[in-house]
Amino acid sequence: MMTEKMMIRSLGSEPPLLADGRRAPDRREVSLRWLSGTFLTGITSSILMGVALFAALDGRQQLAIPAEAYASASADAHQDTSVTRGSRLIAPVIAAKPSDRAIMEVSTVVHDGEKEVVRRQPFSHVKMMLAANHVATEDYPDFDPLAIFSADEPQPAPQSRTGAIYGSDVESEVALKTVPFPTGKSNLNMAPGLSLDEVEENVRSNGSVLTDGNAQLAALYYVDPRRFSAEDNDVDLTAGLAARVLEQNMTVSAPESITPQTEEFADDILPVRQDTTIAKALSDSGYPQLQADGMSGYIAPLFGTDTLSKGDVLRIGIIQKGEQAKIIRASVYRGTRHLVTVALDDKGRFVAGSEPPMLDAIATAFEDNSFAPSAGQNLPRVYDGIYRAALSYGMTKDMTALIIKLLASNVDFQAQLKPTDYLEAFFSVADTNGQATEDSDLLYVNARFGDTLTRFYRFQDPEDGTIDYFDQDGKSIRQFLLRNPVPNGIFKSGFGMRRHPILGFARMHTGVDWAAPRGTAIIAAGNGTVEKAGWDSGGYGNQTIVRHANGYESSYNHQSAIAKGIVPGAKVRQGQVIGWVGTTGESTGPHLHYELIVNGTKVDPLRIRLPGGKSLQGDALAKFEDERKRIDTLLNNQPASDQVASK
């Protein structure tokens, strides 16, 4: 007899049931069916999972940049929970943001005869990262040094079209006229004074209405209403009145809320593609030289050397707030292996730190992708970067050319842009679209190129009505004298003793030679008066001497011809064409022999310390400082010395 347990054990060992004359299936036939079904199921599942994963990623299948990788790390990757994810200081791909441009309504004052007209005008405030991929809205002129330094730009109008920033805000337009206070006898007939009885009668009849809402007029303070009371229990006229003093011609506006600047953290990943020093790796990536040298001094003692090897990775942790950036951590990796880390402690000193959480960007630092180019790769020239950015932000070509001229003494326009180079400008526009016109005025520029900061303001001198641009100390941004009167020329020979090419013996070379093709324009080095213009029998050929201020003279020699109107006594301005390069006199080829003379002594034009341009003084300086402070307050500017870095 079969028990229940025996029946359970026997299940599965019985032969298959057959019906309708079918045969039992072969074991190999069963295996093929199972295998094909399993294979088809796997293929279908893989396709479905791939579609779902692609939809979830929504096209974001590229690798994250370092800042994004840091933000996606674990919560203990950075202890400061208030820090939000930010962009890199040295961003591999730099983007222009809508927040870099603001249109604001500002009250300005313009002198119109005896009146001062105050009106509201739209202004554009732009902050341009020049290394971003800007697209110029129109063609711009090719780089031409002569056009940059020459004085062929239109002279500004005697009166400013935009005017100066006004200290108060107006709703539409207000005309103000100031007349001197009469100090002598007036031509007006004076009315006789009121008697005491007449004063008391006026107070009795008008005292109860000398109020303005719940504000008591100041006139009531000089009269005691109880003096005119008929009975002791009369009501006090001053009861229940709240007194306040109102200044005339003053608008009280609600205080504007200032959005606090938040701190942002970013990791900058710098791959080392060849043996170099720590300081050079940082400076080549756009960090200021002083900052690069300082970080090298902190890392080298712990690292054992200040030299990085090919294949190393330098990781810089940065806290950024507004325009200021601060390095708080630096790490060195050999491949993906951590070697050393320094970090700021609570006392603001760099000490040895623990290894920070690993980032995927360190392992992929040397991969050739669009997110990790070498420093400065494919960036345009400074000249092209300024024009492309300015035109894309609504400036005109004339306004951009003016910026180029004003920066020419401090900026190398043919150098390659650095990722940290930026240009900030404040200019008048036609409407809220932010497009400048030929009537627009440039009021302010703040620029950074490498480690050089340049800031200047537009100001009209009330003494002579001239318009110029001055730094924060009231000194003209323009140079007193140019060192090279042939902007297209090539330096050939310097100041000092040399073997004379014609005479054949050593002789003092009292100037600088600039070689250029015959007929190349020569421009005046500075404003002045022509002292001599004609042939020199001492070997200089066609010679022009210009006398400048403070005992300075400039001499231009071997000219092929002297420009029309350049005669003794004529006034010339800086950049004006005064002649053309030639080879007259004792000369072996076309060039300009340029000399600079100070108080009768010839000096080296390339080495002497030249004075600055015009400096404001007295009342003009005080008015300039007032206008500068208004612009700084309007733009929420910080002193130029406080700017550490810009992203």
Topology:
Elements lengths: L3 H7 L16 H31 L8 H6 L12 E2 L15 E12 L2 E15 L15 H5 L14 E2 L7 E5 L18 H11 L4 E2 L2 E2 L25 E2 L20 E8 L4 E2 H7 L4 H15 L3 E2 L3 E10 L2 E11 L2 E8 L5 E3 L7 H4 L18 H11 L4 H11 L14 E7 L13 E8 L2 E9 L6 E4 L19 E4 L2 E4 L6 E4 L2 E4 L5 E3 L4 E9 L4 E7 L4 E11 L8 E2 L4 E5 L9 E8 L2 E3 L14 H18 L12
Helix pairs in contact: 6-7, 9-10
Brief write-up:
With 647 residues, this protein is an alpha+beta fold. The protein is 19% helix and 28% strand. Pfam families: Peptidase_M23 (PF01551).
Rg for CA atoms: 39 Å
Largest sheet properties: 10 strands, antiparallel
Mean pLDDT: 75
Structural class by SSE content: alpha+beta
Share of β-strand residues: 25-35%
Shape: extended
Uncertain runs: 58-96, 368-376, 641-647
Percent helix = 10-25%
Label this structure with key terms.
647 residues, 8-stranded antiparallel β-sheet, disordered C terminus, alpha+beta, 19% helix
Word description of this protein:
Residues 507-605 form the M23ase beta-sheet core domain. It holds the Pfam family Peptidase_M23. The chain crosses the membrane at residues 32-57. This is M23 family metallopeptidase. Its cofactor is Zn(2+). The chain is an alpha+beta fold and 647 residues long. It is 19% helix and 28% strand. It is built from 11 helices and 31 strands. The strands form 6 sheets. Strands 20, 23, 24, 25, 26, 27, 28, 29, 30 and 31 form a 10-stranded antiparallel beta sheet that branches. Strands 2, 3, 4, 5, 16, 17, 18 and 19 form an 8-stranded antiparallel beta sheet that branches. A hairpin with a 2-residue loop joins strand 12 (312-321) and strand 13. Helix 6 packs antiparallel against helix 7 (289-303) and helix 9 packs antiparallel against helix 10 (397-407). The longest helix has 31 residues, at 27-57. The chain is extended, with a radius of gyration of 39 Å. Mean pLDDT is 75; it is low at 58-96, 368-376 and 641-647.
